[in-house]
Amino acid sequence: SIPLQDLAAIDYHLSCKYIIAIEQNNLTQKITQNVLIKLVDMNE
């Protein structure tokens, strides 16, 4: 069996990766929205 410390370390590592992925996704969405807003402003 895997030691509890190793399990905790793996769990922490996966959590960090998951959080980073969410933050990157949020950032991408914000950038996309800003670009779309600028395009709309330019067209008016």
Number of domains: 1
Residue-averaged pLDDT: 91
What's the alpha carbon Rg, rounded to whole Å? 19 Å
What's the overall geometry?
Answer: rod-shaped
- Largest sheet: number of strands, sense, barrel closure: none
Structural class: mainly alpha
Strand content: under 5%
End-to-end distance, in Å?
64 Å
Tally the beta strands.
Answer: 0
Weakly predicted, low-confidence segments: none
Level of helix content? over 70%
- The SSE string, one letter per element, is H
Tell me which oligomeric state these chains represent: single chain
Number of DSSP helical runs = 1
Walk me through what this model shows:
This protein is mainly alpha-helical. The protein has one domain. The chain contains one helix and no strands. The radius of gyration is 19 Å and the shape is rod-shaped. 0% of the residues are buried. The mean pLDDT is 91.
